[in-house]
Amino acid sequence: MVQVFLSSLLQLLQLFAIGIAGGLAIYFLETLTLRSFMKSVGWRGVLWTAWIGTPIHEISHAVVCPVFRHEVLEVKFFDPASDDGTLGYVRHSYDPEKAYQILGNFFIGVAPLIVGAHVLYLVALLLHPEARGIQGIVTENADALSQADAVTERMALLAGTSFELIWKLISPSGFTSLKYWLFLYLSVCIATHMAPSPQDMRNGLPGLLLFSAVLLLANLLASLVGTSLAGLVGWCGARLALFSALLVYSTAVAGLGFVLSFSLLTILHRVRSGSWLSPF
After folding, report:
1. What's the pTM?
2. Confidence of residue 136 (pLDDT cuts 50, 70, 90)
3. How many secondary structure helices (H) and strands (E) does the chain include?
4. Chain centroid to CA 198: how far?
């Protein structure tokens, strides 16, 4: 039983470790960026990015709801409220007695991360002067991830790719191009609002727990009949390789967005108040 439990845990990590790590990293960078805006220019500064990033975030939730038979009750794609910090929301209901709908809570919760990563990549392909180079790095990383078995090996690949992407994103050849600066602005808008919110995480937890329980039960049944789910889980992990590579790209963009935003806002804050800006 202990071996089955450990195998299930390793399989969960194989499937979700990169997504969870990437999501937390983007959430951390997003928090620092938005906090910098709030401290330097106030609530209106947050809206400079939210008017693009928030609708993409909320549309992601709304699109996935029907897939898991959730009823969408109310949608506000962009409805900023300074009193509680809300920028938009999707209210939906589901039958708590249906496992499929409970599982859907997890995928609805992480939908902004999945959709946001793909939209960021599309923006780069359309506007970045080094689009082919970025595409090559992402594709090579996805191929390498699909062949990597160990979680530690995958994490090492992702770390190396992140730095490579950051250098590629900072393209001196694009500094004189309007498309490059449009790319930077749109990327910051999307990256600072793509991470699941704390409420999204709380709502998605029951679905993740249910998936974990089903995986544990499936491994237990497989062990009783003398087989293993390792091959199936590995195949699923390989299919997720492209998303993992896009998530690394998104983390690099979020990091670059924070550095650029914080640098400009620090100068502004210094001029206006005479003190240095802290994102913490």
Report:
1. 0.86
2. confident
3. 9, 2
4. 13
